[in-house]
Amino acid sequence: MTELDYLGDVDAAIATIERVLGEAPVDEEFPGGSHNSPSTAHRWGAFELWERRYVDNWSEFASRERTLYRPSFSVVFTGPEVAGVALTTEDGIVAGTSWTDLQAMPGLQLNPSGCSGPYLDYTAYDESWPDGTVHEQRYGVDFIANDDASAILRVRAPLAIHEEGCA
Question: At the top level of its lineage, which domain of life is listed (predicted)?
Answer without folding.
Answer: Bacteria
